[in-house]
Amino acid sequence: MLNISKENAQQRVDDIKAFENELQHLENESIVALTDEQKENINTYHKVLIRDLTDTFDVDSSKHKKQLSLGMKIASFLAALGLAFSIFLLFFQFWGDFETNTQIVILIATPLILLGITMKLSFVESTSYYAKIAGLLSFATFILNLVMLGQIFNITPSPNALLVWSIFALLLAYASDTRLLLGMAIISFSMYMSAKFATWGGAYWIGFGDKPENFLPIALLLFLVSFLPHKRFWGFGVIYRVFAMILFFLPVLILSNYGSISYLDIDKDTIEGIYQVLGFLVSALAIYVGIKKELSEVTTSGNIFFVIFLYTKFYDWFWEWMPKYVFFLIIGLSAVFILMILKRYRAKD
Q1: Do 205 and 199 form a contact (C-beta atoms < 8 A)?
Q2: Which terminus, N or C, of the chain has the lesser number of Cβ atoms within 10 Å?
Q3: For 133-154, what is each residue's pLDDT tens digit?
Q4: What is the pTM of this model?
């Protein structure tokens, strides 16, 4: 029973609460009547199950606890952010007072000590809030470590630092079950791979963003990785999919309006037309797949970018010559039309 993910555990608790509420309504309407023994058996079973799920997965067994958990997540993020800035400013405040050897020892020791604290807390703390704070601090000091060591030894900047950051953040993310660190790992890895694609194309790595197409293969890779098993890591699959959608649709949106920066050696207007069609087709496909597979993040991303693609085309076609009240009337009517389609599709489901 406990061989499930935290997400499944939370859903089970939510189902129990929904069942209890619905059963109360059914009894009030005299539709069903359970004996006292049946009620006691159900309540005992649910209490034991919720207790086991709470002890194992630290799930929220009530709305009040969910609100508290949200507040704790915000507080832990602010704590990590404040402590990271404090360490950063502390380094620069007294950095010149240390000898070079002492600076090197501090730079190497700080992230390693915080990494050890993160690992220790991840094993002893069921909620992992403090482990997440330590993990974020370890990652922040690790970045500071590489930057400062590069300055001390006058090392030429390289995209390889991005890969090292990505690997370190990924390890910390899985060690402390922190989605924010996973996002940082994905961002660092995406920048590294884009920089490598840029160098393979003959450009200097620092201009990795000059060709948005560099991010398209990375988006496909992340989307595939999102379907690997992540039972112990709540929401990691969602993070992979969301970043995959962003890293795909943003380059396509840029290229649909600025075809001159594409790798394709064809007419600029043709390039923009290709990416406009691609944006519409893939965003519509994302909406369909998200609904069919019950992936709300895919459906939401598809909806957002479909509307963005649609409205940018309306702007290109109508803004310059059409009266503004007519322009916004078309936007409103198009939104109503989309609503009608989704409503009809929902009715058939």
Answers
A1: yes
A2: C
A3: 888 889 988 988 888 888 888 8
A4: 0.78
Burial of 43 (0-12, 13-18, 19+ CB in 10 A): exposed
d(CA 152, CA 265): 43
- pLDDT of 61 strictly over 80: no
Q: What is the pLDDT of residues 282-333, one digit of tens each?
A: 998 998 898 888 888 998 899 889 888 888 877 776 767 777 777 677 777 7
pLDDT for 274: 92
Scored b (16 or more CB within 10 A) or e, 311-324 reads eeebeeeeeeeeee
Please report the pLDDT score of residue 3 as a whole number: 61
